[in-house]
């Protein structure tokens, strides 16, 4: 993998992000929405599961100066870029990387450092596609980032649950049509589930869902008002524009 020499500007330039070449999975709107999704108390530890180059976790660190972040990523090339991004942004005192496979057996995960009750909150942008139903990308790095083995989402969320302390907060972005699978995976593990549909435009069906939940809660599910990304002119709506930036 040969990333470009110049980092991308992320969150309106608040974060400088080295990314893989074009054609591989690169951070964009999904990562920006996820970085803003949960309130992060000062002193809290946030864990970005499946962190890739660290856009979401390091975005959380930039948006919340009192937070510590842990990036979990299995691919060596992406781990190297995540470490580079920590240094690029001067976050070495508040961010670290755990090289680990989220879907490994429990003993292997814990030996790698994915121990129970590691974090106060967990955020994740899991692979979006099921290898048993969807055709994977011909680009290996992109296919690995986007495609699960069968039943992978349940195992992925099981690991997220294990990493969270009791009562901890969970946040996820996924395809809109994956809502039933997401709710199935959260059932019995989380309550106070909040689902927010994300639409490219008001007249179009949702393309994403933003999901938050609380570990061990028994509170009811709520469906929140939608987030619309673009106005009639094709430009970001004011809310979407704000979510692509860090506060001044």
TrEMBL record:
UniProt key word Amino-acid biosynthesis: no
GO molecular function ontology, one term from the record: N-methyltransferase activity
A GO biological process held by the record: methylation
Domain of life: Bacteria
InterPro entries named among the record's database cross-references: DNA_methylase_N6_adenine_CS (IPR002052), SAM-dependent_MTases_sf (IPR029063), Small_mtfrase_dom (IPR007848), tRNA_Adenine-N(6)_MTase (IPR050210)
Annotated keywords: Methyltransferase, S-adenosyl-L-methionine, Transferase
Name recorded for this polypeptide: Methyltransferase
Organism: Methylobacterium soli
């Amino acid at each position: 993998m040969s990333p470009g020499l110049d980092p991308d500007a992320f969150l309106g330039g608040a974060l400088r992000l080295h990314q893989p070449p074009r054609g591989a999975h690169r951070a964009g709107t999904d990562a920006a929405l996820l970085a803003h999704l949960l309130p992060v108390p000062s002193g809290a530890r946030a864990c970005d599961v499946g962190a890739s180059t660290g856009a979401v976790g390091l975005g959380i660190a930039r948006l919340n100066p009192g937070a510590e972040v842990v990036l979990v990523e299995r691919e060596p090339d992406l781990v190297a870029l995540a470490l580079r991004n920590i240094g690029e942004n001067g976050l070495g005192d508040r961010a670290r990387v755990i090289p680990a496979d989220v879907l490994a057996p429990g003993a292997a995960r814990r030996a790698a450092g994915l121990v129970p009750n590691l974090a106060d909150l967990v955020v994740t942008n899991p692979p979006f596609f099921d290898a048993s139903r969807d055709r994977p990308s011909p680009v290996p790095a992109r296919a690995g980032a986007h495609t699960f083995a069968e039943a992978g989402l349940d195992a992925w969320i099981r690991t997220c649950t294990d990493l969270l302390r009791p009562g901890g907060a969970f946040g996820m972005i996924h395809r809109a049509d994956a809502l039933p699978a997401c709710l199935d995976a959260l059932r019995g593990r989380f309550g106070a589930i909040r689902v927010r549909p994300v639409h490219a435009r008001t007249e179009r069906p949702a393309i994403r869902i933003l999901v938050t939940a609380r570990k061990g809660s028994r509170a009811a599910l709520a469906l929140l008002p939608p987030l619309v990304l673009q106005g009639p002119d094709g430009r970001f709506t004011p809310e979407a524009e704000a979510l692509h930036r860090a506060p001044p």
